[in-house]
Amino acid sequence: MIPKLLVQPAYFAPIAQYAAILQAKTTEFETHDNFVKQTYRTRCYIYGANGKLLLNVPVSKAKGQKTLTTEVELNYEEDWQKLHLKSLQSAYRTSPFYEYYEADLTGIFTTKHKYLWELHQKVHAFVMDALQEEKPSSETTEYFNDYTDKTDLRSWIEAKKKLNIDFPKYVQMFDDKHGFLENLSILDLIFMEGPNASLYLENLNINNALT
Description:
By secondary structure, this protein is of the alpha/beta class.
């Protein structure tokens, strides 16, 4: 059990991050860092018919200026919500458990939040409800580079970061065509495993990837 966990809020975070959250006693979300592009803050990967599919959330951010992640505003010039929901429906509507979560998921994609942080909160609440888990969580009140009293996994927000984790295989929608894709968005595991997703996360060995 991880006593205190520190992570970045993310958009339907990868499986590894939720494994850490479920294996932690308490979780704290970093809310006082500066926004950085091309991370899981604004993207997730699902299993589409052609393989790994990126879903990206557009944001409005002044160039050349540092902006707190919690102050970043969502951009609705393009209807990305409709695109994301359609992509999820196309990929998972015939999965074992998609229909059980569709109504709540649709609610997220039909609400226009102003800030990215508001979307993160709604997404996390949806995921924890889907996992049927209740875990204490809080937000940081100021920024520190290093911590001695927390397991700091903020670096896991980097989409290109390779984690030293052996992900056990579970059945995926298109694995007969493209093989097993590891550490996709938590949505992939939820839609395929349903209530058993929590057991997968609790048993996932993340020790070698902890910092």
